[in-house]
Amino acid sequence: MAQGTTVSKLNFEYWLDKATEWGQATTLESQKDVCLHLPQLQEFLHQIYETIKHLGPTVAIQQFPLIGQLLGRLCWNPFVIGYDESQKTLMWCLCCLYSSEPQNAVELKANSWIRSLLCHLLSSSKWESNEAETSTFISALGYTSADYYCHLVKNMVVSLVTELRENQFNGLNIQESISASRVNAVSIFCVPLITLPDLTPLLETLLLYHGGLSKEILSSEFLEAVNEAFLKKKISLPESAVFSLWLRHLPSLEKATLHLLLQLFSIQWNSLEEVAHVIKDSLLPQAASHPAIFRIVNEIFKNALMETDGTSEVTTIIQVFTQLFLQTHLNENKQHKFPLKAYFPCHHQPLVRALVRRPFELPTTYWSQHVKHISDMLKALVEDTNVSSLTDLFEIWFLVACFGEWLDIAAEQLLKSAVEPDPVLWLLAFYYCPQNENQQRTQTMVEAQAVYSHLMMLFSCADLSLKDLEAAVHRVTGVEQCCSQQFTTHLLTNFLLFSPGGHKIAQECIYHITEMTDTSKEVYNLLIRTAYRFNHSGKENQRTVKLLNELLQKFALKV
User: Fold this and answer.
1) Which of 56, 190, 492, 532 has a CA-to-CA distance to 464 between 20 and 30 Å?
2) Which PANTHER family match (predicted)?
3) pLDDT (0 to 100) of residue 176
4) What proportion of the chain, given as a percentage, has pLDDT over 90?
5) How many CB atoms lie within 10 A of CB 414?
6) From the DSSP assignment, how many helices (H) and strands (E) are in the chain?
């Protein structure tokens, strides 16, 4: 026989006859006979495994055509699978027969048959259904059925984990290393059992396992099933295992990102803290520390923004995600930290560095200067003759949109600080109207400047009425351009929040504007962003914070 093995055709026929004679060992005589032969049978199974583990499925079946019948019958004998390491050896033999890339209908059918046997061997539900048949054997060991199979699963998992981890550090020893097809087969038989708590160490080990090949060795069905179970919170995995899953399987990362978006769209946002909690719980901001994951997630967000016509909900989600990512990046060990260019490789790096600076890193007295610095760099980029296509313009706009915290601060600085207004107004005009086709951005600037000038004349008034703001409100509600409406609504909302006399008429005025312009969602998202920032800074006027909370309660019903 090949490779000098002691496995012979005669032995196969002998053990197949025995397996047929025993059946599922339901009689006392067959049980006694099985027990007498178990040590020799285990040795024979070990010989089979050692012989076929380097052959590949096709060659193994050609050399030992009876192997399928023998393994199939033994897998249903409770005395055989309950003896010492026989179950483990049966599983490894089945894994060796599994075709990682089936070429025809026969191999597909064989794979299906192997999966069903592996499921039978490890599925507690199937074992329990055979409790009447196995009770004699289990009770003889001093176990209850549940205890016995619990220990069996744990021992199997420990054995597989140990072998995979040892192989990970022994990759140069070709004879001892586990073949890629066997690792693939192990991942396949895990699929129906993924939610078993005892299987978690094996899932983690497989996800972190790399066999030194450029091609993925884990089955796509396994990776998809793990991702699905994780997203539905049916399993809990260490962060390192989840990150490895998303790095090695792009569809899982895409599904996780879309799952997060759908989850956020399906809930009512009462605060940005809730949004931040959901995003952080997804592990995506933490995983985005790896540049490849960050760029893919950002690309998905970008597509979602385009498909929803730039809705404020998606923009706010992107901004919170970016803040959480920056927080993770800031806290990372310097030795393991990637440079910013790895995350934003195609962007103007001085602008990236300016946007990445978190407001709390700078004194509040420096905010206005920093906003002007961002505006000046951005204007130079946008007016550069090399930025000619809409795609280039969108990429610049999206970068700015990701760091919307600075945009909200810019709008506040217009009213709260002595700033040079034109650069700040231009920055906000670009955000709300990035294209200047038919002078749209220019017209937006004109409208915004007029509203801003009117509001600044009223800013110090302690006693205001809705009539005092009539001209500003008319400019907001009377313009046809949506981008101009959103920009001027932003300015007017901030005026009502921060001016001494705005508090009294805030609810009435904002309600009127949102009714006339259909900007309820935009205003609501602005309010929760502002409340989120105030709650984290702890420096704002308590009267303003109270007004924000009142407005949020009122407008939550409208959106």
Assistant:
1) 532
2) FANCONI ANEMIA GROUP C PROTEIN (PTHR16798:SF0), FANCONI ANEMIA GROUP C PROTEIN FANCC (PTHR16798)
3) 45
4) 32
5) 23
6) 31, 0
**pLDDT at res. 388:** 61
Nearest C-alpha neighbor of 377 from the set 405, 347, 341: 347
Amino acid at 310: G
> 320: how many CB neighbours lie within 10 A of its CB?
23
3-state secondary structure 484-510: HHHHHHHHHHHHHHHCCCHHHHHHHHH
Residue by residue, DSSP assigns 295-324 as HHHHHHHHHHHHHTTS-HHHHHHHHHHHHH
Alpha carbon of residue 350 to chain centroid: 30
301 within 8 A of 317, measured Cβ to Cβ: yes
Name the more confident of 103 and 379.
379
Contact 203, 218 (CB under 8 A): no
User: Could you tell me which residues come within 8 angstroms of residue 52 by beta carbon, excluding any fewer than 6 positions away?
Assistant: 60, 63, 64, 67, 93, 96, 97
- Asked whether the beta carbons of 453 and 492 are under 8 A apart, the reply is no
Determine the Cα–Cα distance for residues 415 and 421; give it in Å rounded to an integer: 9
Comparing 175-189, 211-225, 302-316, the range with the smallest average pLDDT is 175-189
- Which amino acid, 113? W
More confident residue, 504 or 123: 504
* pTM of structure: 0.76
pLDDT confidence of residue 115:
81
Interval 272-311: pLDDT, tens: 999 999 999 999 999 999 999 999 999 999 999 999 888 8
- Give the dihedral of Cα atoms 371, 550, 552, 518; nearest 10 deg: -90
Phi, psi of 337 (to 5 degrees): -85, 130
Q: Which long-range contacts (CB under 8 A, 24 or more apart) does 105-111 make?
A: 107/57, 110/57, 110/68, 111/188
Alpha-carbon span 39 to 83, nearest angstrom: 9
Domain ranges of the chain: 12-123, 144-167+179-248, 380-391+415-557
Distance of CA 437 to the CA centre of its chain: 38
Is pLDDT of 352 > 80? yes
Residues 6+ apart with CB under 8 A from 367: 359, 409, 413, 417
